[in-house]
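The following block was generated as part of the benchmark described in Methods. Ligand: pyridoxal-5'-phosphate.
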Amino acid sequence: MKRTWVNETARSLPPSGIRRFFDLVAEMKGVISLGVGEPDFVTPWHVREACVFSLEKGYTMYTSNFGLLELREEIARDLQENYQVEYNPCNQILVTVGVSEALDLALRALIEPGDEVIIADPCYVSYKPCTIMAGGVPVEVPTKPENGFRPSVEDIEKHITNKTKVLLLCYPNNPTGAIMDRTSAEAIAALANKYNLFVISDEIYAHLTYDGKHICLASLPGMVERTLLLNGFSKAYAMTGWRLGYAAGPADVIAAMTKIHQYTMLCAPITAQKAAIEALRNGAVERERMVDQYNQRRRVIVSGLNRIGLPCVEPKGAFYAFPSITGTGMSSEEFCEALLKEEKVAVVPGNAFGKTGEGYIRCSYASSIDKIKEALNRMERFLNNRRKAAL
Ligand code: PLP
């Protein structure tokens, strides 16, 4: 009898909706992609040079499981300077292989079987699968454009049960571009305190905030003891391929995560850690230059989408616009497949990020202004053709 090798959990995980779509894109020529959530800049030269220099010096070995102390000290300094939040670099910071690994470690270190994890929906594609793989139960709280795609405290409260342990949040948000304002952040912090919940706060887009200053959840009163702050180098420093991130939080949670990390990953690559030290020490000017570019592109894409009839709440962070396509009568997937086939523009169906994402598409503006303008022209033609066909 043929035996099934793959376990039930892995078998029943749906493949990422983003990947499925990009397999289609890979087979086509002349596509303008507003699909990938990846900077179109290369890592600033001085950061790459620091890595090259470290190789020349022979830094090719493992580091401490926690990561290089020099890097953890820079991370602690950066968090203190930017958000006035204190972490001890010796036992409260763990350097990981991207925020992706930090998220997986966090859920595995925190979750008992059956614990519920509240997740604002739509959300980054890995939150629910990683929760399930850790034995937890994802509980989706829908967010709405009229609330700026932030979960209201009342909506979260309705989903809290005696099994709720973790609130998993991401602001600035992928896919909606929403940011957390101070009033909402304080209300969520009060709720976490009231129900004694732990918060995982994925702040990978913190530096990509275009309206005011990023609010770091751990910096709010009573939060540093119950928050795990995740951040990394992929987005702000255009370092996706280096695979480097970190977690900062209570020492007991970091110690548990470090145990899992030491058995599964051992340490993050030393070359990337050397480069990250340089990024934190001297990368602010280049980082701000990239953020300015994203901001200009943001204005072009948001006004363009609204002009062609795809209403779009102003995204105030990250590099995504999340317009509604309900007026077209198509589902998110139908819209994206037809747009790709007819006009060779790739955007991601909103339902790839959760049920609440149905009726939306995610357009990344980590792409040149010229490409964004051309994509908007093609999208306008696509919509006009549909309108004409409907007459
Ligand atoms: N968290 C969010 C919200 C993201 O959008 C991404 C990547 O798109 C990640 C985490 C993964 O980041 P990393 O490259 O650090 O693993």
